[in-house]
């Protein structure tokens, strides 16, 4: 049996390592609730898992949008997922997620994704 908390911790650790390798300043959290509490206008991008336990990624995206009233203050939101079916992509678009990345993610893929995302503010 796979412990979901272990799986999310591993995914978080790998993503953090990739971003740090690319020179990014990274803040990691252990839950969607904690993310809503700590995210600020200083964060450019929020990476989330749409299937996170507790508040899922869709609810988290809505909460982030509600927290920031000005578009230029909102961080870009990117869903990391192992499933990119059309319904999931439509749900991401509906709640204001700026892009979807299929796991696993390599350093080169993350570099390319960040460049595209920061240049165009959307990744689909």
From TrEMBL:
UniProt keyword terms in alphabetical order: Phosphoprotein
UniProt source species: Carya illinoinensis
Entry-annotated residues carrying 4-aspartylphosphate: 49
Gene Ontology, cellular component aspect: endoplasmic reticulum
Protein name: Response regulatory domain-containing protein
Domain Response regulatory, residue spans: 1-118
RNA-binding in keyword set: no
GO molecular function, one term: ethylene receptor activity
Recorded superkingdom: Eukaryota
Any Pfam family matching the protein: Response_reg
């Amino acid at each position: 049996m796979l412990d979901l908390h272990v799986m999310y911790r591993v995914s978080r650790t790998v993503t953090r390592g990739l971003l740090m390798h690319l020179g990014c300043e990274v803040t990691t959290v252990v839950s969607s609730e904690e993310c809503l509490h700590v995210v600020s206008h200083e964060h450019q991008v929020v990476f989330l898992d749409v299937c996170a336990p507790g508040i899922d990624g869709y609810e988290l995206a809505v909460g982030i949008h509600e927290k920031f009233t000005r578009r230029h203050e909102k961080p870009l939101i990117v869903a990391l997922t192992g499933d990119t079916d059309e319904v999931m992509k439509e749900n991401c678009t509906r709640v204001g997620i700026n892009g979807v990345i299929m796991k696993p993610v390599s350093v080169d893929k993350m570099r390319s994704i960040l460049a595209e995302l920061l240049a165009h503010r959307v990744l689909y």
